[in-house]
Amino acid sequence: MSDSSTDNEASLHQYQDIQYSLKQSNRKTTSLFIERDGSVTVRAPLPYDMAKIESIIEQKRSWIYRNLAEWEDLNRVQVHREFVNGEGFLYLGRNYRLQLVDEQDEALVLKNGRFLLRRDHVDSGMEIFKNFYRTKGLDRINQRLTHFAPKMGVTFGSVRVMELQHRWASCTSKGDLNFHWRCLMAPLAVLDYIIIHELAHRLYRNHDAKFWDAVDKVLPDYQRHVSWLRHNGAGMGL
Ligand SMILES: [Zn+2]
């Protein structure tokens, strides 16, 4: 940390578990906001009053959590799963052990509480699992969208399950919805939250109070799921 930053360059800071970049403001007020990429920025006048900045972060803590949850860096913790007997793989919030098998029609099936992967497909295990999440995910997500959309009075366009950069899901201005295949590793209730969150964007583009009210109407305990994602999201990977 330096007290000689007189230009507009941002410096990176950490307050407890919240990382933020600090930029000089020409106004007298200190403000905190979340950038489009999900990073937290504080603008404050010089000289920086760190105590004041930190108390603002403290006041806004739950608001920050809510907003960061969506962008939680999926790659913060590199999960590395191996395609060997006994390795655990998540599906809808449960951990299933992998078993390699010699004979089986499909490359991968979930059966009797185990993921069965054909031994001659081990080298492409990553792609096969992603494909499993994508195809199973699309069915599941479509079902839930069809259930929740009318309750919320919204429509939606095309639905895709894919690899997304820094988000669990996204909603285009035309109403097309994209979901990360990793969403399928979350418990159903959390998956529902992700789906409802995107549908609420059909009503409000930004995460303002009206947006969260719309989520709250269909899912009064949504905060629990936001926090689940925050704490477990990084571990959801292959
Ligand atoms: Zn959102």
TrEMBL record:
Residues 28-231 form the YgjP-like metallopeptidase domain. InterPro entries: UTP_pyrophosphatase-like, YgjP-like_metallopeptidase. Gene3D superfamilies: Metalloproteases ('zincins'), catalytic domain (3.30.2010.10). It comes from the Bacteria. Pfam families: YgjP-like. This is M48 family metallopeptidase. It comes from Endozoicomonas euniceicola.
